[in-house]
Amino acid sequence: MKYLQGEPHALPGNHQPLASYEARHFLFAVEAGVATLTLNRPERKNPLTFDSYAELRELFRALAYAGDVKAIVINGAGENFCSGGDVHEIIGPLTRLDMPGLLAFTRMTGDVVKAMRACPQPIVAAIDGVCAGAGAMLALASDIRYGTERSKTAFLFTRVGLAGCDMGACALLPRVIGQGRAAELLYSGRSMSGLEGERWGFFNNLYAPEALLAEAQNFARSLAQGPTFAHGMTKKMLQQEWNMGVDEAIEAEAQAQAICMATNDFHRAYHAFVAKQKPRFEGD
Fold first, then answer.
1. Count of helices and strands (H, E) across the chain
2. 144-147 vs 71-76, strand pairing mode
3. Residues of each domain in the chain carrying CATH 1.10.12
4. Per CATH, the architecture of 2-224 is what?
5. Which of 6, 66, 190, 229 has a Cα-to-Cα distance from 32 of 20 to 30 A?
């Protein structure tokens, strides 16, 4: 199964810039430190395939070493974010796989979420229209989610006879919107509207569809201009502390903050404050 190996040879090596990377299964561009990843099959509401899953996994792994990328925006072409796994290119073939093949696939899709959570750059998802199944998990694995009133987010795994625990949904969703609300969505598979998603804390904000991507990119650009080493540390702690008690978390944050205090960005901020200037962060 080729998709299990992905295509790492197409990606730059450690600490090499990704600006010149040409994606094969979606659009990818880097400008002013912000990488914009666009799922680009609008005629099918941007579904995922075996190969696009694999490329996403390898790309997010490579982003951990990309010095030219400070923040990431993920969105969908057209008027939808992502309709999940392609019915014809994924769901059909899965019905013919044996158990080892099925487990290899589900572990591979979970690795996409792991890679998104492990890369140090903040990820901003711009979600318009349909955001379903694996698409909802790409949104959930992001750090910040912007939506529209017409956004329809559905963890619809039970609609196709599967459990609602796909790709880390049962771990991530309750932490974002609460246990009871997550349970309802994961059991029912129903769509959550944009207004409901904002009220429940799934969306950080809602924008008009025509302004959505620009708002996401503007916020990502503001993050890219900030203390990016410290942002990476914040993201690390946000994830790592889920498995800690309070005392362990306080000690971990003491260590993380001490490391940040040794950075040049911390010193730049101090000297800028003394000079009554705005600091210019460089991520070191």
1. 11, 9
2. unpaired
3. 228-274
4. Alpha-Beta Complex (3.90)
5. 6
E-assigned strands of 98-198? 123-127, 130-132, 144-147, 152-154, 191-193
Convert 4-29 into a string of H (helix), E (strand) and C (coil).
HCCCHHHCCCCCCCCCCCCCCCCEEE
Q: Is the pLDDT reported for residue 2 higher than 70?
A: no
What are the residues whose beta carbons fall under 8 Å from the beta carbon of 72, sequence distance 6 or more?
Answer: 34, 35, 36, 37, 63, 119, 121, 122, 123, 124, 220
**Gap between the Cα atoms of 200 and 268, Å rounded:** 38
Question: Residue 76: phi, psi to the nearest 5?
Answer: -120, 145
Q: Is the model's pLDDT at 166 over the cut of 70? A: yes
Contact (Cβ atoms closer than 8 angstroms) between residue 104 and residue 92:
no
Q: Of 107, 129, 121, whose CA–CA distance to 57 is shortest?
A: 107
pLDDT at 14 over 60: no
Dihedral angle sign, alpha carbons of residues 65, 68, 73, 76 = negative
Pick the CATH number of 228-274 from 1.10.3210, 1.10.10, 1.10.150, 1.10.12: 1.10.12
Spatial contact of 79 and 129, defined as CB atoms under 8 Å apart: yes
